[in-house]
């Protein structure tokens, strides 16, 4: 079946009773924060900057005497009920170079939610393949920048949902908060009147005269912090310029390949309890070992120095409601792929991450997101296309963890079995890794340049093999404890 045949929706998503025009619950226009604006302008045709998630659901139980729920209609109705998903980006006169979120007067949920029927012989493989093709395509910038695809065709009635959200719309935690609105449990809670927050007033585009002095002082403070962060970024970048890891570099082909792998969270926790550190340290070490194994399988010599990973760090307060836009920085980690011993790789990762945490997220090239937060809108508009290739100087691969709710989730009564997050590829890079713990498992989504990494499934297999080295599989006579939450 051709890509064009698969991408044609089998049927349009049903719309809300009034799918077009303003909605009384739409929030007021709001200026894009500097980091959101940076992501908006960094995007190019070959390097779309949207986050993704491929969620697999089991068959929906049909109530006695009733038809099973229409999942496409349910998706459309719930997505249209999320105010942020009705907003598009438009340019504004002030501040110069800025942009604002505003309600799309022509919003029609049928343009965003579609169904694709897949061949059912190997539904997981087909869903990953079509997800890769859909992830290649940028979202339409003149509309609210998101898409959802219902993937059906599995013989047992199971299905999948692919969600695409532009990075300007959300970081990982905010994306989870927005996307969670499609689940039964979250949607039911959102129907309670007390659950509707008051709209946030928009930022003032033309400040009152009395505020001008305060704003000038704030800008001077921002400038001082930008110089401090910028010096840290530049210093790390100068060192980085002499340390390329060519095995993870790629000239963009504009294509994508996706692979998924599932690891047992209890095994990860068992390693953590035995060695110290965090579950994330274990997963980073497993990734380093998998890259070493993958390089060896390809016949690629190990790099002269260890490749560097960018590990995003949320700046949101624990337990706080995720606000609008992006709020993140990052740590830089040299992945110890040149270390042959798995235990030594884990110790190296744990010590490096401990140093990162002690220094805080304001140091090193990983703080480039904080620098972006200090720049004026015009700098992002002019410098975005020029800065898009700078990632290659800072790091070789993105490795991120996206937290999910710990409670069991469902859609139309169909239980969520797995959710594989997907991160965007930076210009000049061939691979991005994203992880989400859910239901006693760690679900890993690998996104790669389709031409540079034709053997992505080998890397997925290497991740499972590396976990076996740190925690040899137990026999049936050696049951372990029940899975616990991730760190």
Short overview:
This protein is of the alpha+beta class and 487 residues long.
Order of strands across the biggest sheet? 5-6-7-2-13-12
Please tell me how large the radius of gyration is: 23 Å
The biggest sheet, with number of strands, parallel, antiparallel or mixed sense and barrel status, is: 6 strands, mixed
Indicate the proportion of strand residues. Answer: 15-25%
> Can you write the helix and strand succession as a string?
HEHEHEEEHEEHHHEHHEEHHHHEEEEEH
Low-confidence stretches: 1-9, 15-21, 192-207, 215-239, 481-487
Terminal CA distance: 43 Å
Structural class assignment: alpha+beta
Query: What coarse outline follows from CA principal-axis ratios?
Result: globular
What does this protein look like?
This protein is α+β, with helices and mostly antiparallel strands and 487 residues long. Helix content is 34%, strand content 20%. It has 14 helices and 15 strands. Helix 7 runs antiparallel to helix 11. It is globular and about 55 Å long. The protein starts with a helix and ends in a 17-residue tail after the last helix. The model is unreliable at 1-9, 15-21, 192-207, 215-239 and 481-487 (pLDDT under 50).
